[in-house]
Amino acid sequence: MGYGIKSASLRRRIITWSWRAAVIGGLFAVASCGKSPQSGPVVQPTKKVELVLFSAPWCTKCKDKHPQIQAQIKAATEYAPFIKFKLYVTTGALSNEPPTQALAEEYNANVLHIDGPAFADEWRWKNFRKLVGGTMELPAAALLDEAGNVIKAFAPGETTFLVDDVVTTSLEATL
How many CA atoms lie within 13 A of 55 on its CB side? Predict the structure, then answer.
């Protein structure tokens, strides 16, 4: 039971030292329990941004993803006041029909419920092409600074448009 240590005095010192180290470690753990490490000052949002969402009545993924984005941003209560939403509806009820302002407002009010104005995108996806570019796929979004410059255009499409990417980038842009 001496663990190869022949001196009783040395064994007592090692046991005492080990015990003290365990007690100090335990006290440190209890004292820091529930506290997050502070790596620097807490940064608060200060910049206002606008998240422009592109949708259409026939786009099933839009009906799912756009409300998710808004809900996650609203859940980040300290950031939410710095992010405004705008919705552009790119087509009519069918993909080959131009949108109308009445359809855009009705679609938002009855389906998406985005907290922001809804507009009919000028026919053939004029604002989409200007802000997002690339292929004309939905869902899509662009994040704009206060001057209306594109901070980031998010990859459009059913599989490439990622809710978490849109939310994280939008929140970070307010800092």
Answer: 27
Amino acid in the structure at residue 91: T
Q: Please tell me the pTM assigned to this model.
A: 0.76
Residue 43 has which token pair? 């940064």
pLDDT, position 12: 61
Range in 9-23, 45-59, 104-118, 122-136 with the lowest mean pLDDT: 9-23
Interatomic CA distance for residues 168 and 118, integer angstroms: 23
Q: Are 51 and 84 in contact (CB under 8 A)?
A: yes
pLDDT score at 44 = 86
Contacts of 153 (CB under 8 A, 6+ apart): 131, 132, 133, 134, 140, 141, 142, 143
Q: What is the CA radius of gyration of the chain?
A: 27
Chain-centre distance of CA 75, in angstroms?
10
The three-state secondary structure class of 38 is coil
